[in-house]
UniProtKB/TrEMBL annotation:
Gene name tied to this protein: ABSGL_07666.1 scaffold 8929
Pfam families in the record: NDK (PF00334)
UniProt entry tagged with the keyword Membrane: no
Name of the protein in its database record: Nucleoside diphosphate kinase
EC number(s) recorded for this UniProt protein: 2.7.4.6
One BP term from GO: UTP biosynthetic process
Catalytic activity: a 2'-deoxyribonucleoside 5'-diphosphate + ATP = a 2'-deoxyribonucleoside 5'-triphosphate + ADP
Amino acid sequence: MEPWLSSLPVWPLVEQSLCRKEQTLAVIKPDGFSQAADIVKQLQSNDFHLIDVRTTTLTTSTVAEWYHAKRNESYYPSLERYLTRGPVQVLILERVDAIAGLRRVIGPTDPHLARQLAPRSIRALFGTNVQENAIHASDSLATFKAERILLMD
């Protein structure tokens, strides 16, 4: 390490990276669509800022591209029917630590488990079962970028 580098304070650099806002994507699924306003309020109460919103009905080809890794699973036909049965709301959200923060706010995939482990989470409050769990959230920056292109363009 260069001698001058070791004399620089590290904290401002760490603090800057911890305070940097990032964006993420959420999809309010067909079962949550009728409660979209309440779900968005819940997100906003957790410091998420709504950057963009799109209401759409997903096509089977969009679902096939989105869930390409799951197409050979036995539950895929049911998942496809569910996601194409009605409108969804696609949200671009922003805040510090948005991707991980949104995953915490929505709670576990299974709403029954969410009610036990995270009773104030979106899935605990609005979800019904593992499939009909009201909301999807990007799980990484790479996933966010791909889902934004697929679902917002």
